[in-house]
Amino acid sequence: MIERTAVIRNSAGIHCRPSAVIIKAVQAYEGSAMVYSESGEAKLHSIMGLLSLCLEQGSKVKIVVEGPNEESFAEELVKLFETEFDFPPREG
Asked: What are the residue boundaries of the structural domains of the chain, listed by start?
């Protein structure tokens, strides 16, 4: 088991689209991952669980990974949580 800390940098926080990117990465991982914040904790296998933490820009999270290559995967998750996502605007 390995722990890492990340600070949310995305100006809109971790909303639906960043959550989907993070959850997709975790689904491809053979181990397990959890995130802890001041507002609670969530297993990273559910978008709703991650969204329920209401992670805003500047929020600090602890990421816990357990499984194969846990150190490299934990670093990958830190990068995702700290990404300043710039999704193209949706056309209506």
From this structure: 2-81
